[in-house]
Write a structure and sequence with these properties.
single chain, eight-stranded parallel sheet, globular, 12 strands, alpha/beta, two-stranded antiparallel ribbon
């Protein structure tokens, strides 16, 4: 059902459950995501599949649905011959599809519009490295039109997610400033640092004093990395923390496939909560079954 509170107000009341990886659910539904646009291709070609994937997570107990716009960019769509006007409409569609699934749920569900990093548009795995050779201003110019298009669709929050370095975080925050929609900022990390190797305290500090940032944390990292990073995010910023690790499997960008086994244990949610997490869920390769387990541990069903 449509939320009756703002997301920030709901976070003040307790922990909220995010969804899991959209791409793995779409693949489970039989979708081919081998295209460079990844799940964003379905915004144009098969939007019903996206809504069905959102619905699967809402039924599993998710209270926040993250849109299919992670890899949706004006540049990526242009390479497919899609005009800027049509691309903007597809970005807005990503929000409406999630909103439709949310409306059908028996519980309050918020919609987070995904704003993925510059590297996601490149589709070469560089979002796990950062340091693209672009300035903060250049990255801001890249992100701003997409943020404006998504904000126009009135999501509950913008998820500035899978951010690999502080330059891109600064660019995203600048691009989102004044858009009228609150944001959360979520880094992808490894070895206790950003993917670009920066200190996490420095990275999280970028959100300090920004009222539009309602949560700060990590996503698309190994589950074992999550608790310490969440604790640091909460301590540095004084804001609610967000955490949604991947399964722990490793993405091979050349083969466009995952390697290894899952390390995602829903019981880790207790550690995340203790560290200050208020938005918890999963990222790549974490499906509705795991979200259902999280919901049970959180007393949601």
């Amino acid at each position: 059902m449509e939320p009756v509170r703002t997301l920030a107000a709901a976070l003040a009341d307790g922990v909220l459950l995010l969804d899991g990886g959209l791409s793995n659910q779409l693949e489970a539904q039989g979708c081919d995501l081998s295209d460079a646009l990844w799940s964003a291709r379905l915004l144009a070609d098969d939007p019903e599949q996206i809504e069905a994937a959102h619905t699967a997570y809402a039924r599993a107990g998710a209270q926040v649905l993250i849109t299919s716009s992670y890899q949706a960019t004006f540049e990526g769509f242009e390479r497919r011959g899609i005009s800027g006007e049509r691309a903007a409409a597809l970005l807005r569609r990503s929000v409406s599809l999630a909103r439709s699934a949310a409306a059908a749920a028996p519980h309050e569900v918020w919609v987070a519009a995904s704003v993925g990093p510059y590297g996601a548009m490149l589709a070469d795995g560089s979002e796990y490295r950062g340091r693209y050779g672009l300035s903060v201003r250049e990255l801001e110019r890249f992100h701003q039109p997409r943020i404006e298009a998504l904000a126009a669709a009135e999501p509950d929050v913008l998820a500035l997610e899978t951010v690999p370095d502080t330059d891109e975080a600064e660019a995203l925050l600048r691009a989102a400033d004044g858009c009228g929609v609150p944001v959360w900022l979520s880094y992808t990390v490894a070895g206790g640092r950003t993917r670009a190797g920066q200190e996490l305290a420095e990275a999280f500090a970028l959100a300090t004093g920004r009222s539009e940032v309602i949560a700060v944390g990590v996503n698309c990292c190994e589950p074992a990395e999550a608790a310490s990073a969440v604790g640091l995010a909460a301590a540095v910023t004084g804001k609610p923390a967000v955490v949604y690790p991947n399964s722990g499997e490793q993405w091979d960008p050349a083969a466009r496939s995952w390697r290894g086994g899952s390390l995602y244990d829903p019981a880790l949610v207790r550690d995340w909560q203790a560290a200050g997490a208020r938005l918890v869920g999963g990222c790549c390769r974490v499906g509705p079954d795991r979200i259902t387990q999280l919901a049970r541990l959180l007393g949601r069903n």
